[in-house]
């Protein structure tokens, strides 16, 4: 049975008593670990903070580090941890600081170094599965099912150069879809992908935010940052982190969990009604010729694939007119991996 062992941070150091996530006192915050025991492979732990407000209100869960090489969300939640005063909060905030610790600590893109699986493709997980499936199961049971709303924070992985954007998932549930739409507008990023193609089976939800949505909980996914780089380091003001911090606070204000007004939201966001991830047909070396945020016409050259001796294998071109939301900006490419993500502006 999965148990969340939470250790209170006291002023003089770490308290030793384990604290269940559901038993944080009103007006208090606690940080510690959700334990994922060993099974068919090694176990892990997930660092979590729970801030329970002094007054009642909704439960908002915020995930970071589902992909372990995506650093902006991890650092954004560290900063938010110190900004949320539970005595001034209505409701409860659950911050999952690093969902995928094996990938984070071993610096791997997309896939777990333990089982080779993409955590954001195995939800809602399995109690007796491999480590990625057990992490997904723990997050589903202990975080998502406890929440009323969910924000899943991402950025470009360690190989991806990405411009900020968010996803609005359309599930066919009018009330949930409209609430998710209002959340993504409140978050405040100026580019929003309309995504109507996510799975509809709650038992095979695949993605973390989709897991919440198919359980009747409004949710959004946002992206800001990339390439495993934090310019200036943690103490510097980095826009990719600032956008995530500000966006979460905007949603807290929108949900009336904080007594403040949303800041710097996009008044007229760009809606993207068609998108395509271009994937490599070869294993080799990738030479991108466009950058994130570039506007491209249909047929525009995005990059060139070569073998390891320099022989040209393919020219990759834009399938339609749109904007480059992200482009892989490091040379190594395996067959089937993403090369670029193109979005078409809704007219």
Reconstruct the topology from this structure:
Elements: E1 4-10, E2 13-19, E3 28-36, E4 44-52, E5 55-63, H1 71-83, E6 90-96, H2 101-106, H3 131-142, E7 149-154, E8 160-162, E9 165-169, H4 174-187, E10 191-195, H5 208-213, E11 219-223, H6 239-254, E12 270-279, E13 284-288, E14 295-296, E15 301-306, E16 312-317, E17 322-328, E18 332-333, E19 338-345
Parallel strand pairs: 5-6, 5-7, 7-11, 9-10, 10-12
Antiparallel strand pairs: 1-2, 1-3, 3-4, 4-6, 8-17, 9-11, 12-19, 13-15, 13-18, 14-17, 15-16, 17-19
**Helix share, percent:** 10-25%
Number of domains: 2
Rg (CA only): 20 Å
Number of helices: 6
Would you identify the CATH H-level superfamily of the largest domain? Zn peptidases
CATH structural fold name of the largest domain? Aminopeptidase
CATH architecture descriptor of the largest domain: 3-Layer(aba) Sandwich
Number of strands: 19
* Computed structural class: alpha+beta
CATH class division of the largest domain: Alpha Beta
Largest sheet report: 15 strands, mixed
Percentage beta strand: 25-35%
The overall average pLDDT, rounded, is 92
Distance between the termini: 51 Å
Poorly predicted runs: 1-19
List the helices and strands in order. EEEEEHEHHEEEHEHEHEEEEEEEE
Large-scale geometry? globular
């Amino acid at each position: 049975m999965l148990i969340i062992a939470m250790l209170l941070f006291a002023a003089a150091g770490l308290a030793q008593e384990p604290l269940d996530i559901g038993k944080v006192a009103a007006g208090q915050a606690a940080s510690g670990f959700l334990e994922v025991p060993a099974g068919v492979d090694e176990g892990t732990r997930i660092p979590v903070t729970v801030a329970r407000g002094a007054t009642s209100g909704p439960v908002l869960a915020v995930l970071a580090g589902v992909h372990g090489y995506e650093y902006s969300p991890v650092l954004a939640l560290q900063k938010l941890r110190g900004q949320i005063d539970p005595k001034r909060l209505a409701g409860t905030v659950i911050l999952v600081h690093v969902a995928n610790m094996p990938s984070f600590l071993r610096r791997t893109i997309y896939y777990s170094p333990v089982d080779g699986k993409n955590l954001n493709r195995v939800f809602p997980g399995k109690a007796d599965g491999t480590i990625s499936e057990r992490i997904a199961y723990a997050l589903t049971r202990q975080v998502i099912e406890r929440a009323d709303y969910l924000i899943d924070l991402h950025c470009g992985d360690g190989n991806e150069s990405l411009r900020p954007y968010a996803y609005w998932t359309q599930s066919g549930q009018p009330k949930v879809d409209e609430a998710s739409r209002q959340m993504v507008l409140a978050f405040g990023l100026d580019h929003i992908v309309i995504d109507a193609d996510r799975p509809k089976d709650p038992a095979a939800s695949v993605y973390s935010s989709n897991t919440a949505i198919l359980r009747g909980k409004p949710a959004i996914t946002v992206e800001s940052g990339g390439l495993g780089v934090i310019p200036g380091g943690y103490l510097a003001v980095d826009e990719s982190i600032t956008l995530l911090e500000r966006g979460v606070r905007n949603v807290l204000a929108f949900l009336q969990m904080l007594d403040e007004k949303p800041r710097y939201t996009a008044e007229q966001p760009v809606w993207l009604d068609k998108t395509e991830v271009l994937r490599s047909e070869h294993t080799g070396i990738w030479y991108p010729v466009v950058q994130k945020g570039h506007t491209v016409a249909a047929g525009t050259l995005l990059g060139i694939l070569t073998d390891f001796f320099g022989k040209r294998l393919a020219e990759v071109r834009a399938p339609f007119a749109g904007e480059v939301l992200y482009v892989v900006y490091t040379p190594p490419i395996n067959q089937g991996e993403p090369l670029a993500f193109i979005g078409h502006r809704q007219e």
